[in-house]
Specification:
The chain has eight helices and two strands; from the N terminus they run H-H-H-H-H-E-E-H-H-H. The protein has 251 residues and is an all-alpha fold. The relative contact order is 0.18.
Length: 251
């Protein structure tokens, strides 16, 4: 690992152990689990800050343009949760999987590259186009086609659409919603990280470390606003179904 001179190899192994054994926290009593969650977040911040040799500043201003997420139609919060909770939670899961590689500053790692790969995730599964079980196409091919994109692009779409539903009335502009503001602040940091990762991945990318850590803090603000658990809760250690749910629940 190529990191700050004050960062020992032993410390890195401890950090990776924290990240790899997150799921063990779920079996602890509530008081100990809460303590471990706080300790893990603090540890991650300490290591990345040490690696880049500086203190990470607060959230930047949002600079992205926006449009009507629901084409002028009002989506209720329960409906939005059914549609987007699975997609957002799976995106957070894959975002956190980048943690160990980002701690090392290695943006060439497969976990990092996969997150931004535009063919890396199945967004819409292929559906057979049979009619009453019979394929009526002349070429006999009724398999259908799947739609693929990067997990990050789907994260942007689902976070925005979910955030846009958390409104008091239909007249409030999306850009004025706290949820949308938080989402856009997150996108700003991650868009910059994406440019670094896609164009010129490195094995000691301190700039990407800074972007990731700032995005991590903003993401927790967003998750709180849309009534989802924080990143250090251990909730996102598992994979999530991205299909539309049957109820507005945390799966």
């Amino acid at each position: 690992f190529i990191l700050h001179s004050k960062l020992t190899m032993r410390t890195l192994f401890l950090v990776l152990g924290f990240l790899a054994n997150t799921s063990n926290a779920l079996t602890l009593p509530q008081q100990k689990q809460s303590s471990l969650n706080v300790e893990r977040r603090s540890f991650l911040h300490t290591v990345i800050n040490a690696a880049v040799g500086g203190v990470i500043v607060g959230c930047g201003q949002q600079a992205l343009a926006s449009g009507g997420a629901t084409a002028g139609k009002y989506t209720t919060i329960p409906i939005a949760k059914r549609r987007y909770y699975g997609r957002v939670q799976e995106a957070v899961h894959e975002f956190l999987l980048m943690g160990p590689a980002v701690v090392k500053g290695d943006t060439t790692d497969p976990a990092v590259q996969q997150f931004f790969d535009k063919n890396g995730a199945v967004i819409v599964e292929a559906k057979r186009q049979d009619i009453n079980g019979q394929c009526t196409k002349k070429d006999g091919n009724c398999k259908g086609r799947e739609i693929r994109d990067s997990r990050y692009n789907d994260m942007k779409a689902s976070m925005y659409l979910l955030g846009n539903a958390f409104r008091i009335n239909q007249t409030k502009a999306p850009d004025n919603l706290p949820t949308v503001k938080a989402a856009k602040a997150f996108f700003k940091e991650m868009d910059e990280m994406e440019k670094m990762v896609v164009k010129k991945p490195k094995t000691n990318d301190q700039a990407a470390q800074k972007r990731f850590l700032k995005a991590l803090d903003i993401l927790d603000e967003y998750l709180d606003l849309v009534e989802l658990p924080p990143t250090e809760s251990g909730h996102y250690d598992k994979e999530f179904s991205t299909l539309v749910g049957e109820s507005s629940r945390i799966t």
